[in-house]
Amino acid sequence: MFETLMLSRIQFAANISFHILFPTITIALSWFLFFFKLRFDQTADPVWMRAYRFWVKIFAITFAIGVVSGITMSFQFGTNWPKFMETVGNIAGPLLGYEVLTAFFLEAGFLGIMLFGINRVSPRIHTTATLIVAIGTTLSAFWILALNSWMQTPQGFEMRDGVAFPLDWFAIIFNPSFPYRLTHMLIASGLTAAFLIAGISAYRLLKGDDKKAPKLTLKIALTVAMVLTPLQVFVGDMHGLNTLEHQPQKIAAMEGIWHTEKSAPLLLFAIPDEKNKENHFELAIPAMASFILTHDFNGEIKGLNEFEGNHPPVAPVFYAFRVMVGLGMLMLVIAWAARIQLWRKNHLPVWMLRALVFMTFSGWLGTLAGWYVTEIGRQPWLVTGVLTVKDAATTIAPGNVALSLSLYLLLYVVLMTAYLHTIFTMAGRAIEIEEIGNDESSTDGNSGDGDKQNNPLVKTSSKSSGELRSGSRFPNNSSVDLIKE
Question: For 11, 76, 78, 194, which has the most beta carbons within 10 A of its beta carbon?
Answer without folding.
Answer: 194
